[in-house]
Specification:
The chain is α/β, with parallel strands linked by helices. It is built from 19 helices and 5 strands. It has a 5-stranded parallel sheet with strand order 3-2-1-4-5, sandwiched between helices. Helix 1 links the parallel strand 1 and strand 2. Its cofactor is (6R)-5,10-methylene-5,6,7,8-tetrahydrofolate; FAD.
Length: 434
């Protein structure tokens, strides 16, 4: 006789506390088998086999396994196409229901649709829950039922809708976990990856940082950021916990959490933004796309100390301060007239906290072609940004210490680049209107 089970499928919610879908599964009628699937469709795209994100997930799964083993259960970790893994699970167990939390990216929607159709053939329901956001795709809309495409009114409606129950932690009752024998997880080598220098630590909400977030967040030399992007990306911290803390401690940081949800609903409603400008006329921009200049930007050799410091930080750590992200993105798209999609792809490869919706949204914001974008004529001057936000060169000296010694002529003169960009953008918009 096959064992009757419910399956909980971990994806972007790698924690056993305050987890909506897991909480629902544990309240069901059948013992819950937790699983995770390393998907080749995602892993095979990662060229760097020392990718810290894969190591991060692996370390988190090892930690979760220890927690579940204390509860006399375990997590089954698989490496393969999700559809094949679920066929295997349907053979091995009498699966009564499958639970998971929503994922809003285009690939995830296709994957989940395929899994749902497979389960339907066996009369197994796929029960999904909202977990990685407070308000999902269709919950914050204009009065006429259409989605918001500008952040400020979206944020206003979001805050008007917010109630305490929206960010209350989910109750967890572990008695219904399936009792299973311990099983070793696949190693990084089994997945085709190598160990990195990254060491996972349980994410923490730091009141010292968040209480003063609005005053200090623009100064990269102070390193006064939450560093929670990676934890939110993979769900090692609950967004409800973050919002609860933000409501109590800092409205500016709450605004950043709302930006995250704004870009998620943009991607959901307008999936073509993955490869296209949200504002169609900007598709007419005559990008220069000089490969040598792109390489110099990637390697931090533009001759602009703040831009180069940012790229060095990204390449060495997988992180870049948010103010500097804006400067380097503006520089690539405006000063060098290189397609925002090139920069977006480079960030996707390098950023540990890479999130498709936010990365895409912020790059289109910087390029001026997004839904809620900086006007095309806003072109950051890296030297003025340095005077304003790193006047003592603390950040630059940390990540670009040889900037004065290097014979590194600026790749392009600011005034010339600005005028060139304005002409290119205006020409594109004129063409788009005709």
């Amino acid at each position: 006789m096959k064992e009757k089970v419910a399956i909980f499928w971990f994806r972007r919610d790698l924690r056993i506390t305050d987890n909506t879908g897991l909480s629902m599964a544990l309240r069901g009628d059948h013992p819950v088998l937790p699983i995770f699937i390393f998907d080749p469709a995602i892993l095979d795209k990662l060229q760097n086999k020392e990718d810290k994100r894969v190591d991060y997930i692996h370390q988190v799964l090892l930690h979760m396994q220890k927690e579940l083993q204390k509860l006399k259960s375990d997590i089954r970790v698989y490496h393969g196409e999700p559809i094949s893994i679920f066929k295997q699970l349907l053979n091995e167990y009498e699966v009564k229901e499958v639970y998971c939390n929503h994922d809003y990216e285009p690939y995830a929607i296709q994957r989940d649709t395929a899994i749902s159709k497979l389960l339907e053939t066996q009369d197994v329901p796929l029960k999904t829950s909202k977990d990685q956001v407070i308000f999902e795709a269709d919950e914050i809309k204009k009065n006429d039922g259409t989605p918001y495409t500008v952040y400020t009114p979206y944020s206003r409606k979001w805050k008007e809708r917010l109630e305490e129950k929206d960010y209350r932690a989910k109750a967890m009752h572990y008695d219904n976990l399936l009792r299973v024998k311990n099983r070793k997880l696949p190693s990084l080598a089994d997945l085709g990856f190598k160990k990195t220098s990254f060491t996972w630590k349980r994410p923490q909400l730091d009141a010292k940082v968040i209480d003063n977030y609005g005053e200090h967040r623009d100064y990269p030399g102070e390193d006064h950021t939450t560093r929670l992007g990676l934890a939110l990306r993979f769900g090692t911290i609950s967004v409800r916990q973050c919002v609860r803390f933000a409501v109590k401690h800092n409205a500016t940081w709450l605004g950043e959490l709302i930006w995250r949800e704004f870009f998620m609903q943009i991607l959901y409603h307008f999936p073509n933004v993955v490869n296209k400008c949200f504002k169609a006329p900007y598709e007419h921009i005559a990008w220069r796309n000089n490969e040598e200049e792109f390489t110099r930007w990637c390697e931090g050799r533009t001759g602009y100390p703040l831009v180069d410091a940012g790229m060095h930080e990204l390449n060495e750590t997988g992180f870049m301060h948010n103010r500097v992200r804006m400067v380097v993105a503006s520089f690539l798209t405006k000063h060098l007239l290189i397609d925002w999609r090139w920069g977006e792809a480079y960030f996707a490869e390098k950023l540990l906290d890479y999130e498709l919706s936010s990365n895409n949204g912020n790059w289109q914001w910087a390029a001026g072609c997004g839904c809620d974008a900086a006007p095309y004529f806003r072109i950051f001057n890296p030297m003025e940004q340095t005077k304003k936000f790193d006047k003592d060169l603390v950040y630059i000296k940390r990540w670009n210490p040889d900037f004065e010694a290097l014979d590194n002529e600026p790749i392009v003169e600011h005034k010339f680049a600005r005028e060139r960009a304005l002409k290119a953008y205006k020409k594109a918009l004129d063409k788009g209107r005709n």
